[in-house]
Specification:
Helix content is 50%, strand content 14%. A 9-stranded parallel sheet has the order 8-13-12-11-10-9-16-19-20, sandwiched between helices. The protein has 23 helices and 20 strands. Helix 7 crosses helix 9 (178-216) and helix 9 (178-216) crosses helix 22.
Length: 618
């Protein structure tokens, strides 16, 4: 074993032990690589010094770096691609690491994550080049599954110390590992888009969600447990009906299908079907805004089973008089925690950017196969929002589409179509889920318009129905059987009262602690604690502030109630303090920043705890 490799291995063992273990197992012949697209790796020598590697793969032959001037190539890469304002750089490809050394030495405060897809290439590089700086100053992912890498990237979005995030390949790696890079880049973009939508939605709706969770839980006694539906409809076709403009093309085909497929209406689609005298088996509601309740009030039929999460508008649960199924929803930690407390088994259904995303998860867990999407435009087909609207009604008042938030894409036929970021987030969610389950279920997109959804086969509904020749099932009777078997009892309210009383006690504990924050803020304002006079006392005071916030985060009510209410606002306050702190080290200038941050955090906490107390006492 070469001296260089021994030194690199020793450094890995100290600084990145998980990479050391993987590489050591590979050297011993006990590790099976995930990525094996490289055919050969040849060493390029000059005067007995290894100056380059030649990689032979199915995509061709590639030199890892420039033979003549690898340092110059590294600086050119930095100048061409790296944005100095970003604080986190994800680099696809280690190569001979000249570009990484320049990156790490030029921008010492950057977080650098290296994705090295091929362990044999990694090993050959580590045999011939000293990687001390890379090992000590970066985070390496070696021959790792894509979902593990994406999970780590997702955590960076929430890390205020990292700021902007850039994902960039060392160019030759994008050529050698084209498929891997294309998939990583695509999913990174989707993650960023979804994160932006998630932040906007949570800031706007988090208070209302918590209100609805607590209020709607009082109506559980009137519903059945939707988890009882899982696995009860195996190999029965499922049709997911959304309200997109293209629904008008094939809505009439649903009238003869009620005994041949489980028909599930997402959100507004239930009203559109009801207006056309079509009664699906299920309608699904999760929207917290009272506009959802207004829509459900307009449903004339009481034959439809209403599947809802406690997130839905309280009026929807209160005023719809048909039979209801409650679904335990992954976004609703409050009700899920109560179910565990009450000893009720109720597995999760997935949340997503749209109720249609959740509908797919329900149909899949019910066992439906195939699952057919209709009305899932995810765009303004003919310039409209919903089926039955006048063409162009959504876009007719817009003069500057980009300024108004519209995004130009191609539809399934290659024509220009406008969409928006929330629709793209819905599409991203579908594609991620479809990719995971495509081997288990046949997925058809019979929307006949709008954006293409990968991993779903585009078909015309009429042709699909003719081809498949669906047989009849006793679907109505099966649903009724599950409904009767899984209905909650009145005892659930007694357990709910005990549960809420326990949470109320935790809220009151936090109230007494958070009131201490303003006393500390007042002491900072009056310079009772000053780092230049008594550093020890000042540090103790800062420690007490941190202790209070640790108690909030570690409280039993944080994950189930407080997190949705304060996480984003506290994240933004932290970001503001860090930006200010980076601009000055003068305590007198920082003091106002600290006082303002503590006051904002106290005001937010006091307000949210007060509202929770009021809701739990009802």
């Amino acid at each position: 074993m070469s001296d260089i490799l021994q030194k690199n291995l020793a450094l890995l063992k100290t600084h990145q032990p998980h990479i050391f273990e993987k590489l050591n197992l590979y050297i011993l012949g006990k590790y099976k690589p995930l990525e094996n697209s490289i055919d050969r790796i040849l060493l390029a020598n000059c005067d007995d010094i290894i100056i380059n590697l030649l990689v032979v793969s199915k995509n061709g032959q590639f030199a890892i770096c420039d033979n003549e001037d690898p340092i110059g190539q590294a600086y050119e890469w930095i100048d061409k691609y790296i944005d100095p304002s970003n604080k986190a750089n994800i680099v696809f490809g280690m190569g001979f690491a000249y570009h990484l050394e320049v990156l790490l030495t030029s921008f010492k405060n950057k977080k650098v994550i290296i994705i090295e897809p091929n362990i044999e290439l990694f090993y050959q590089i580590f045999r011939v080049r000293n990687m001390e700086l890379i090992i000590k100053k970066s985070e390496i992912f070696l021959d790792e599954k894509l979902n593990v890498i994406l999970h780590r990237i997702n955590s960076l979005f929430w890390d205020t110390e990292k700021g902007g995030i850039q994902c960039q390949p060392f160019e030759v790696y994008a050529e050698i590992f084209t498929s891997f890079w294309d998939e990583l880049r695509s999913k990174f973009i989707k993650q960023a888009e979804n994160f932006n939508v998630d932040i906007s939605t949570r800031r706007f709706l988090s208070d209302l969600w918590i209100h609805n969770y607590i209020k709607n839980s009082k109506k559980l006694f009137d519903a059945s447990n939707a988890y009882g539906l899982t696995g009860r409809f195996k190999e029965i076709p499922g049709i997911l009906v959304s309200a997109g403009p293209s629904l008008s093309k094939n809505i009439h085909l649903l009238k003869g299908l009620k005994d041949k497929a489980v028909i599930m209406a997402a959100g507004e689609a239930a009203r559109i079907l009801d207006d056309n005298n079509i009664h699906p088996h299920f309608m699904v509601g999760i929207d917290a805004l009272e506009g959802e309740a207004d829509m459900h009030k307009k449903i004339k039929s009481t034959e439809i089973y209403f599947i809802y999460s406690n997130q839905v508008a309280t009026g929807s649960v209160q005023f719809y008089t048909g039979s209801k199924f409650f679904m335990n929803y992954s976004a609703d930690s409050y009700t899920n925690d109560f179910m565990k407390f009450a000893g009720i088994h109720s597995g999760m259904f997935l949340s997503g950017p749209s109720v249609a995303n959740t509908c797919f998860d329900i149909l899949l867990k019910m066992g439906c196969n195939p699952i057919i999407l209709i009305g899932q435009d995810l765009a303004y087909t003919s310039g409209s929002s919903y089926a039955g609207e006048e063409q162009g009604s959504q876009l007719k008042n817009s003069k500057d589409f980009e300024k108004d938030g519209y995004i130009l894409k191609k539809d399934i036929n290659g024509n220009d179509i406008y969409t928006i970021l929330p629709f793209i987030a819905m599409k991203n969610w579908f594609e991620g889920y479809f990719e995971r389950v495509k081997s288990k279920v046949d997925i058809f997109n019979a929307t006949e318009g709008g954006l293409n959804i990968e991993f779903a086969e585009n078909v015309r509904l009429k042709e699909l129905l003719d081809e498949k020749d669906f047989k009849s099932f006793e679907i109505e009777g099966l649903i009724k059987k599950v409904y009767d078997e899984c209905h909650f009892t009145d005892e659930i309210n007694l357990k709910l009262d005990v549960y809420k009383k326990n949470l109320l006690g935790e809220v009151e504990k936090l109230e007494s602690q958070t009131n201490e924050l303003m006393k500390i803020s007042d002491m900072i304002k009056k310079d009772i604690y000053h780092p230049n006079r008594d550093k020890k006392a000042f540090d103790k005071m800062i420690g007490r502030i941190n202790n209070i916030f640790d108690n909030v985060i570690n409280s039993p009510i944080y994950d189930i109630l407080l997190k949705n209410l304060i996480e984003i606002e506290f994240y933004l306050i932290k970001l503001e303090v860090e930006r200010g702190s980076s601009q000055t080290a003068n305590y007198n200038e920082l003091k106002g920043l600290y006082i303002d941050a503590i006051s904002k955090q106290h005001r937010i906490l006091a307000d949210k705890l007060g509202k929770l107390k009021e809701l739990l006492m009802c």
